[in-house]
Structure formats: structure tokens, C-alpha cells
Specification:
Elements (H helix, E strand, L loop, with lengths): L2 H44 L6 H16 L21
Length: about 90
Amino acid sequence: MGMMDKIKQQATTITQQGKAKAGEFQTKREIEKAARDLGLAVYHKHVGDSTLDDDVARLLGVLGQHAAEGATIPRPGSEVEGDGTTGLG
């Protein structure tokens, strides 16, 4: 294998690793946002805003899909980094 072939192979490997890390990061952000928004929806539902049933179902679906794909869903009270946004999305 020539020098250029080795360089191409290394570049391809690094690109694939970068894409995998980016995908993991995006999944983590989606989980964190869905979990935060679910908590807010449950709170608002608890205090009498019953219009959020669709949001609760949608967010449970998002978390369930990520769990089915093998992602770890943090437990309540665990340290989780937020994305800096607020409100239901």
C-alpha cells in the first residue's frame, strides 16, 4: 500500500469517527431536551394545564425511540448538561 493510500485510509477513518461522535452528541442533546421538556410538560399538567397531553405523548415517544436504539436515558436527579434553551419544544 502506497503512502497516498495510507493517508486516504486514515482520513476516511478519522471522518467516520467524527461523524459517529457528532451523531452521539446530537442524540444526547435530543434526549436531554426531550427529558427537560417532558418534565416541564408534566409540571404544567400537574398544576392544571391539561392541554399538554399531546406533548407528553410525543416526548415519551422521542425518549422511547432513543432508548430502543440503545441510548442511555438519564435517571431523575442525575447530572445532565442542558442545551441552554427553555420552554416546550
